[in-house]
Amino acid sequence: MICSGSRYSRFLFLCLSTVALSVACKSTPKSEDLSKAEGQPMDSSVSSKEMNYDATGSDSGKIDGLHTVHFDYDQSSISSESRKELGENAEWIKGHANSTVQIEGHCDKRGSTEYNLALGERRAKAVKHYLTTLGIKSKRMTVISYGEEKPLDNGDSEDAFAKNRRANFVPLNQ
Q1: Which residue, of 10, 11, 169, 171, is most buried by count of CB atoms within 10 Å of its CB?
Q2: Number of domains in the chain
Q3: Domain check: are 167 and 94 in the same one?
């Protein structure tokens, strides 16, 4: 029992608590262990699959044949220039039948976190919808919004903001 008047007892209690907390934090179970513990089957969603390409989780123009598309301020509509790029992306997706593609929606830093997450999702969904009109099966694509959380340019200029209003493509293994 800890005596409230004893400095040594308080010190010892704090030390033991700190050690216990650090051990608990270092032994976080893996997601597969959590699934087994909860009696749930392993997660087979796209998010649990390895990426084929850039480990940062985004093409950012680094994959030949896949293009990042950009959006106007506060918009999720697809421009005519983006439609051309998405046509090329559709050809890439058709040519890589073993890949599922995750479409990332991004925003610039203006607006609230909640608003930007919703806008990023609308952008990613608009891209997915357009690709389905080009013959890509919906089940081969997933969407995720990062809102303003993964900027390509941290600047405060309109040019920086424009770079961040985008949809990127992440090919995933199947």
Answers
A1: 169
A2: 2
A3: yes
Select from 124, 120, 129, 59 the least CA-distant residue to 92: 59
> Same domain, yes or no, for 21 and 102?
no
Tokens of 74: 């506060």
Asked if the structure places residue 100 within a domain, the reply is yes
| Torsion from C-alpha of 112, 114, 118, 124, nearest 10 degrees | 80
For the stretch 77-96, pLDDT in tens is 999 999 999 999 999 999 99
Q: What is the pLDDT of residues 123-165, one digit of tens each?
A: 999 999 999 999 999 999 999 999 999 999 999 999 999 999 9
125 vs 150: CA distance, rounded Å: 18
**Rounded distance between C-alpha atoms, residue 135 and residue 24, angstroms:** 49
Q: Is 102 helix (H, G, I), strand (E, B) or coil?
A: strand
The tokens describing 58, both together, are 């985004």
1 domain residue, yes or no: no
Clarify whether residues 78 and 29 are in a common domain: no
